[in-house]
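Holo prediction. Input below; ligand is NAP.
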Amino acid sequence: MGLRMMVTGASGTMGQELVKLLDKSGVDFIAASRSLDRLPAGIRGLQLNYDSAPLLEQAFRDIDVLFFLQPFAENMVQQATNVFRAARAAGVQFVLRVSGFGASVSSPYLYQRVQGEVDELLKNSGLRYCLLRPNIFMQSFVNPWGEALRQGILYLPQGEGRISFLHARDAAEVAARILTDPLYFHKFSFDLTGERALSNAEVVSLISYQVQRRVCYVPVTEEVAIKSMQKSAIEPWDVELMMSIHRAAKDGKIAEVSESFRQLMNRDPRRFEDFSKEMREEWIPPTPVLEPPLL
Ligand SMILES: NC(=O)c1ccc[n+]([C@@H]2O[C@H](COP(=O)([O-])OP(=O)(O)OC[C@H]3O[C@@H](n4cnc5c(N)ncnc54)[C@H](OP(=O)(O)O)[C@@H]3O)[C@@H](O)[C@H]2O)c1
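Structure of the complex:
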């Protein structure tokens, strides 16, 4: 019998892509979400919440390999502690974790530091593991920045900083590749980026071309960005986390291009041009419904 796998985060940006790939390849896996109705139809699913520590061990009982993805949350380290403890107790053999580009406990940027802390937890957990460190997904221009782009102006405090954005499907393809022979990849970690770094001005120009309409990027100050997030009642930790990503971008710290994708997959990562073509409908504002004139 092959290794039994669980895909967590299966309803998310990268998880959905991975589920499609594994399903297409006929891999036996179970997909997890906090809510079964968020999982794609026809996929074997399981309800799972990293905050429900007592239930995790039971959930991992029949699993050999765990694909573990967790979103940023203030209690991220606690959630990961719950997961690794339960995985160990349940006899999981291998964890493929989605970390983030630049993850390090000594990073000056909160979002990289917290990823670094979870990486260290996994390394010291006694579990076998592999770490994926993808840079920001191109899909960020659909969610969360899609609405701003539909309205025509993207305000961000990233100055002229560049980011080597990665297509989430490329990240999923790497994960699927590793899951074909997970134990071989024990202790590996892969920095995953796109084929070049782009500034937001370049990104909106590529999007403008696709939608045949002018879309602008306006760099704003940190103060403006923080005030706008506070006005939307975003929690202080989440504000700090978002600001740390913006600062890393502005400081040019996430512009590096890694060769890992090419080495693993024997092809170039997808280009932003391809992504923007694929997603163009997302940036087209809905046509206003005109009321018939009153007679
Ligand atoms: N977004 C990016 O650009 C990007 C780039 C590189 C790396 N990453 C890394 O990928 C990770 C996730 O990124 P994201 O925010 O973009 O993900 P996402 O697409 O929003 O997906 C998050 C997933 O986590 C699941 N989830 C949330 N809370 C959970 C809980 N308490 N228990 C179990 N499952 C839970 C959600 O499933 P349900 O809601 O269905 O439960 C969802 O499928 C982060 O660690 C991030 O650093 C993201």
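Residues 54 and 239 are 30 Å apart (CA to CA). That is the main takeaway for now.
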